[in-house]
């Protein structure tokens, strides 16, 4: 298969992808979930005229000239409304958030009063409606409160609770299965032989997928064996996305492609005109998306940022478009070849409000430490000419 451009690969992956169905979950389970249906208010908030201060509910006309002494006839507290009505010459003790009694049209703060038994002397006049929060001040029945497609945070959940919504309709979280392949791999904490390395890809990819809103089925390390690889693929049959790392080439010890084909996966493309990440592979098995990532850690995560992230976003009903931004180059870069480069870089916000992206000197695709220290990838199109410090370039932020 010929190398295909990054943009074409992403378009082919996202072709025909629809958001996953909605499910109703309790508010306690909605943090970080994507709202599938807009939330509208079914009641006014507050549902009644409420006091904004501790003090006394009065008729403003009674205290236009002060001092004015009124008869105390009762109390209104939050959750315990005064049941009667205020008549001329009367007042009701009231606390913040409590319903304003019928007949009263203002609240005098307690600091501007003197009380003695059932007599309350008002020392400062108030205007009608002063210190009252009217019904519907926050929102009214029928108001749009939360839009579909919103990733829910604490403030959103608080608003939903205030609107008396015990559950919300959110997108089902896509399930991502992860398979790491290779005889050379051991789990963290294991004892690698002299010819083995510690597996890191599946752990980083699992964290990334969860950060993006997916659930993860980590199927561990599979040896370089065709039947073992097929068994692992079979275990992932019910997931939305299957991600493999390593073994996607056609060498004597690379069995992933053959195992995928034997398991009913139709390979759409293999190899991308990009660096790092050239061996990336994509296919589908019925409704399942299959992403074959390179074994090199940096290549694997760059491919995940470019292809797994937009796929998860699309399944969640989120925008899955290009999220490149501009920055100034912090050092010169040589002319590019026929592949699109993704160059690890440090990112600095300058005093003039712009960003400066400075590439690391060494870009080896096995070096995880520099990838951890990088804040962005400088995107260098195929055949890009020599670039000088200060030139404007496109970058992709690393936010996982």
Automatic annotation (TrEMBL):
**Pathway entry:** Cofactor biosynthesis; molybdopterin biosynthesis
Keywords of this protein's UniProt record, alphabetized?
Answer: Magnesium, Metal-binding, Molybdenum, Molybdenum cofactor biosynthesis, Transferase
Q: Which SUPFAM superfamilies match?
A: MoeA C-terminal domain-like, MoeA N-terminal region -like, Molybdenum cofactor biosynthesis proteins
EC number in record: 2.10.1.1
Q: Which cofactor does it need?
A: Mg(2+)
Spell out the reaction equation it catalyses: adenylyl-molybdopterin + molybdate = Mo-molybdopterin + AMP + H(+)
GO BP annotations of the record are:
Mo-molybdopterin cofactor biosynthetic process
Q: Which InterPro entries match?
A: MoaB/Mog-like_dom_sf (IPR036425), MoaB/Mog_dom (IPR001453), MoeA-like (IPR038987), MoeA_C_domain_IV (IPR005111), MoeA_C_domain_IV_sf (IPR036688), MoeA_linker/N (IPR005110), MoeA_linker/N_sf (IPR036135)
An annotated GO cellular component: cytosol
MoaB/Mog domain residues are 177-314
What parts of the sequence cross the membrane?
A: none
A molecular function annotated in GO for this UniProt entry is: metal ion binding
Where does the source fall among the domains of life? Bacteria
Family to which this protein belongs:
Belongs to the MoeA family.
Q: Which NCBIfam families does the record cross-reference, listed alphabetically?
A: Glp_gephyrin, molyb_syn
Q: What does the protein in this record do?
A: Catalyzes the insertion of molybdate into adenylated molybdopterin with the concomitant release of AMP.
- Protein's name in the database: Molybdopterin molybdenumtransferase
Organism, as annotated: Aestuariivirga litoralis
């Amino acid at each position: 298969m010929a190398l295909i451009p990054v943009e074409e690969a992403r378009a082919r992956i996202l072709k025909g992808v629809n958001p996953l169905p909605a499910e109703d979950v309790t508010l306690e389970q909605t943090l970080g979930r994507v709202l599938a249906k807009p939330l509208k208010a079914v009641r006014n908030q507050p549902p009644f005229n409420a006091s904004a201060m501790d003090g006394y509910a009065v008729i403003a006309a009674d205290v236009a000239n002060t001092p004015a002494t009124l008869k105390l006839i009762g109390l209104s507290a939050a959750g315990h409304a005064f049941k009667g009505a205020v008549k001329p010459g009367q007042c009701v003790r009231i606390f913040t958030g409590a319903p304003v009694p019928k007949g009263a049209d203002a609240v005098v703060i307690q600091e501007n009063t003197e009380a003695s038994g059932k007599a309350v002397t008002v020392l400062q006049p108030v205007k009608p409606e002063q210190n009252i929060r009217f019904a519907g001040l926050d929102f009214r029945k029928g108001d749009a409160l939360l839009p579909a497609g919103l990733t829910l945070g604490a403030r959103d959940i608080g608003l939903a609770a205030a609107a008396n919504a015990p559950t919300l309709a959110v997108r089902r979280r896509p399930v991502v299965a992860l398979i790491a392949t290779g005889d050379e791999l051991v789990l963290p904490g294991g004892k690698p032989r002299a010819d083995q390395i510690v597996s890191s890809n599946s752990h980083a990819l699992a964290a990334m997928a969860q950060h993006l809103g997916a659930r993860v089925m980590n199927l561990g390390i599979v040896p370089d064996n065709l039947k073992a690889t097929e068994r692992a693929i079979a275990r992932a049959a019910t997931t939305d996305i299957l991600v493999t790392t390593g073994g996607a080439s056609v060498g004597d010890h690379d069995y992933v492609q053959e195992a995928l084909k034997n398991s009913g996966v139709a390979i759409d493309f293999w190899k991308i005109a990009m660096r790092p990440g050239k061996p990336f592979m994509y296919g589908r098995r019925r409704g399942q998306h299959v992403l074959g990532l390179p074994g090199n850690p940096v290549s694997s995560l760059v491919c995940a940022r470019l292809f797994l992230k937009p796929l998860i976003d699309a399944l969640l009903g989120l925008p899955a478009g290009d999220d490149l931004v501009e920055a100034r180059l912090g050092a010169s870069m040589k002319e590019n070849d026929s592949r699109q480069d993704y160059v690890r870089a440090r990112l600095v916000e300058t005093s003039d409000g712009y960003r400066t992206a400075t590439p690391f000197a060494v870009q080896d695709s096995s070096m995880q430490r520099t990838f951890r220290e990088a804040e962005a990838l400088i995107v260098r199109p195929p055949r890009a000419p020599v670039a000088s410090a200060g030139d404007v370039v496109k970058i992709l932020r690393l936010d996982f």
